[in-house]
Design a protein that fits this description.
By secondary structure, the protein is of the alpha+beta class. It has a single domain, classed as Roll (2,3-Dihydroxybiphenyl 1,2-Dioxygenase, domain 1). 16% of the residues lie in helices and 32% in strands.
């Protein structure tokens, strides 16, 4: 029996202002976004190196609760990278909000984290023992 393959994935973040959030991902994290959907804009898919993060406008009265507020040190998104030191240096230079600096975790991953405009934690990690 033939099996299908998963060929991609995209974390989805609810945000207070999809335009400002997309600009943060572009200018501070090095992603690009081809377009917005909706009038006024309500959805965007910034991408970098073939990977996407989806941003969806939350209703005005919605309270956004990042995962770390529910489970200590839990991310909303995690990106595996091939050179975590280079990505870290780039995002520091771009002015991204660094949540925690480069460190080696007990699970043999060198990683760091950022926070977006809505307080979501996003980590970038490199497996030290592939």
């Amino acid at each position: 029996m033939a099996k299908g393959r998963i060929v991609g994935h995209a974390p989805i973040l609810l945000v207070r202002d999809v335009v400002r959030s997309a600009e943060y991902w572009c200018h501070k994290v090095g992603f690009s976004f081809p377009r917005f959907w909706g009038e006024p804009p309500a959805f965007c898919m910034p991408q970098r190196d073939g990977h996407i993060i989806m941003l969806s406008q939350a209703p005005a009265d919605h309270v956004i609760i990042p995962h770390w507020r529910i489970v200590d040190k839990m991310w909303n998104a995690y990106f595996w990278v091939d050179d975590v030191e280079a990505i870290h240096a780039e995002l520091v230079e771009r002015g991204a909000s660094i949540d925690y600096g480069l460190c080696i975790q007990p699970y043999d991953v060198k990683e760091f984290g950022i926070q977006d405009l809505d307080g979501h934690d996003i980590a970038f990690g490199q497996d030290l023992d592939p």
